[in-house]
Amino acid sequence: MNNVRFLDRLGSAALTIALLSVLLLFVPGLVRADAVAAPVTDDFIGRADL
Predict the structure, then answer these.
(1) What are the CA-CA distances from residue 43 to residues 14, 35, 36 (Å)?
(2) Alpha carbons 43 and 38: distance in angstroms, whole number
(3) φ, ψ for residue 13, nearest 5 deg
(4) How far, CA to CA in Å, does 11 sit from each of 1, 4, 8, 14, 30?
C-alpha cells in the first residue's frame, strides 16, 4: 500500500512538472502576441479620439 502511495505522488509530481513546462513554453508566445496587439489597440484609441 505504501508503494502505491509513493507511485501516486511520483505521478502527481511528474504531471505538475510537465504542466509547468508547457506553461513556460507558451508564456513567451503570449507576451509576444500581446506586444504585437498593443499598437493595434493604440491605433484604435487614436481613431476614437477623432
Answers:
(1) 45, 14, 12
(2) 9
(3) -65, -40
(4) 15, 10, 5, 5, 28
Q: What is the pLDDT of residue 28?
A: 66
pLDDT of residue 46: 54
Distances from the Cα of 1 to the Cα of 11, 22, 32, angstroms: 15, 32, 48
Cα–Cα distance list, 6 to 13, 23, 31 (Å): 11, 26, 38
23 pLDDT above the threshold of 60:
yes
At 13, which amino acid appears? A
At 2, the amino acid letter reads N
**Residue 8 neighbours by CB under 8 Å, 6+ apart:** none
